[in-house]
Amino acid sequence: MLLSASTAFAQHLPHEHGVAELRVAIAGNTLQIEFESPLDNLVGFEHAPRSDAERMALAQAEVILKGVERIVTLPAKAACAVLRTELEQPFAESSAGSDSGHAEMSVVHTLQCATPSALTGLEVRLFEQFPRIREIRAERASPRGQVAAKLTPKQRMLSL
Ligand SMILES: [Zn+2]
């Protein structure tokens, strides 16, 4: 109860630069990893790209987020394979854009794991990929329950 209440509250606050969110859910053989971040954390700006350098930075952030192995390290024994990846970037043609001056990028990876019981924890690699991230607010929901955790460059393990 406490977790869902605080989550609902957080979603109504403006995003905080330096902070990102990670949600991990395990149900049966399915593992879902959802990452959402202020764009500033990923590329250092939140406006539509104005130069080739900015377009390249955006494209590179997309490539990193689309590779689940670039954002987390999973236990090899779990034998997980990606079924589906959905990336949302703010300046796509289909996007309505933002009036707030802020922008976010998010990705959802859905994986199928042959041995989900081996999913005891994961290590986030996001701090190496995006040094502007100083804190990740993580949540996991698994047969072991629902837990919230604060990850930092010194605490990169999330137990599942
Ligand atoms: Zn912002």
Q: What are the key terms here?
A:
9 strands; single chain; 6-stranded mixed β-sheet; disordered N terminus; alpha+beta; 3-stranded antiparallel β-sheet; binds zinc ion; globular; 160 residues; ZrgA-like
Entry summary:
By secondary structure, the chain is of the alpha+beta class. The chain has helices at residues 2-10, 39-43, 52-66, 68-71, 126-129, and strands at residues 19-27, 30-38, 72-73, 80-88, 104-113, 121-124, 135-142, 145-151, 157-159. A hairpin with a 2-residue loop joins β7 and β8 (145-151).
Distance between the termini: 19 Å
What portion of residues is helical? 10-25%
Would you tell me the structural class of the helices and strands? Answer: alpha+beta
Q: Please tell me how large the radius of gyration is.
A: 16 Å
Low-confidence stretches: 1-12
3D shape = globular
| Main sheet specs | 6 strands, mixed
What is the domain total for the residues?
A: 1
**Helix and strand succession?**
HEEHHHEEEEHEEE
Q: Main sheet: which strands, in order across?
A: 4-5-2-1-7-8
Bound molecules: zinc ion
Describe the protein in words.
This protein has 160 residues and is of the alpha+beta class. It has five helices and nine strands, in the order αββαααββββαβββ. The chain has helices at 2-10, 39-43, 52-66, 68-71, 126-129, and strands spanning 19-27, 30-38, 72-73, 80-88, 104-113, 121-124, 135-142, 145-151, 157-159. The strands form two sheets. The protein has a six-stranded mixed beta sheet with strand order 4-5-2-1-7-8. The model is unreliable at 1-12 (pLDDT under 50). It binds zinc ion (ZN). InterPro entries: ZrgA-like (IPR021253). Pfam families: ZrgA (PF10986). It comes from Parazoarcus communis. This is DUF2796 domain-containing protein.
